[in-house]
# Entry
Amino acid sequence: MAKLEYNPFDTLNFSKDICFLSGKKITTGDALIPVFPVWLMEKYQLDEQPFKLLDESINTYGRLQLPCSADVLTNALEPL
# Structure
């Protein structure tokens, strides 16, 4: 049976040019979406809160973003 889901760990490709859910190449109409939903960051004032990543770098919740194709955003994430 064919594998239906995309797994970036199969090829270790975590590029900003590849949609994190579908594995399709990102085009100009596609977007970077926040890892944490905006409503969650607003409710708990997380947007500018810093935290340390595993590589010891410091980042904020609001700056963490994932590449997402317009198709996935419209058909899979927005309905949620």
The mean pLDDT is 87. The first strand starts at residue 31 and ends at 34. The two ends are 28 Å apart (CA to CA). The beta strands are 31-34, 50-52, 58-60, 65-68.
